[in-house]
Amino acid sequence: MRVSLMDGIFLGLSLIILSFFASYLLLVHTPMRSFLPQDLDPKLRKEMLTEATRVDSLSAALEKQSRYLKVVKGILSGNIPVDSLRKNGRDIPLDTLANRHLTLITTTRREEKFREEFEEGEKYNLSVLRPQPATPEGLLFYPPLKGKIVSKFSSKGKTYGIRIEINDQQPSLAVLDGTILFAGYTSDFDFVIEIQHNNDYVSVYKYNTELLKKQGDKVKAGEAIGIAGDNPARAGLPYLYFELWHKGVALNPEEYIVF
Questions:
Q1: How far apart are CA 242 and CA 161, in angstroms?
Q2: I want to staple 197 with a disulfide (CB 3.0 to 4.6 A). Which of 38, 45, 61, 201 is the partner?
Q3: Cα 233 to Cα 190: distance, rounded to the nearest angstrom
Q4: Has residue 239 been placed in a domain?
Q5: Is the pTM of this model over 0.70?
Q6: What is the spatial distance between Cα 240 and Cα 206, in angstroms, rounded to a whole number?
Q7: Residue 191 host element (H or E)
Q8: What DSSP assignment string belongs to 20-44?
Q9: Residue ranges making up the domain that contains 159
């Protein structure tokens, strides 16, 4: 058998090429791929990220627990006075006290000035004493009538209702189920109707030209209770003045009713 130099070279190149393709197939299509550097299995990479996040969470929890135990130890040993646990007659939780032992960024003079101005301004703010009541779930207010709102609610201006102008006579409708508290004529507001509803709501309808209900009657939401329209004794376009109250506090009807 005769073998030339070119045959040997060709045979060697063929073996190298076959070895390369065989190695490539083994590394790409078999689990041996995970042994390659910087080429982890996606599932393994996801597990590593999850475990790293869990370790960070555990570290934060251990650090917080350490601060908590440090404060408790300080109280028991007498290093932290008991008076420091109370401020203005209120008890301070141990978690809050532990957080105060953290090293925080020093406040700037500008931040301290802003904080003082804000606290001074909020000192006389009484709005927190009269929080806006939340509408109970499932409670739907009917509009008292259809018209244009020309006078807005303003507690500062002592305008405790809204004025709704209409083009022609319309029936005044009860905004919720309830009982007629008052129905009669007044020299200042013409015919007036007041309705007591559930959840301590009271609705007031002023400047009616006619009443359809009397005191003590039960009404349903959307039921006609009076007529609003032209009044020869009152100048200007016909309108209805509507008020909504809750536990003695006047509410802005536009925040509860879609007109």
A1: 5
A2: 201
A3: 10
A4: yes
A5: no
A6: 6
A7: strand 190-197
A8: HHHHHHHHHHSGGGGGSTT---HHH
A9: 148-255
Residue 195 belongs to a domain: yes
> Over the stretch 106-136, which tens digit does the pLDDT of each residue have?
667 877 887 787 777 665 555 444 555 555 5
Looking at residue 105, its pLDDT comes to 56
Structural domains counted in the chain: 1
Pair 142, 224: CB distance under 8 Å: no
Q: How many residues does the chain have?
A: 259
Q: What is the pLDDT of residues 27-48, one digit of tens each?
A: 777 766 666 655 556 677 778 7
Per-residue tokens: 54: 């869990």
Residues with Cβ within 8 Å of 15's Cβ and at least 6 positions away in sequence, in order, are: none
Instruction: Give me the CATH number covering residue 174.
Output: 2.70.70.10
In a domain, 2, yes or no: no
Distances (CA, A) of 48 to 37, 61, 123, 165, 175: 16, 20, 52, 68, 60
Q: Does residue 72 lie in a domain region? A: no
SS (H, E, C) 72-105: HHHHHHCCCCHHHHEECCEECCHHHHHHCCCCCC
Q: Which two three-digit tokens encode residue 104?
A: 């925080």
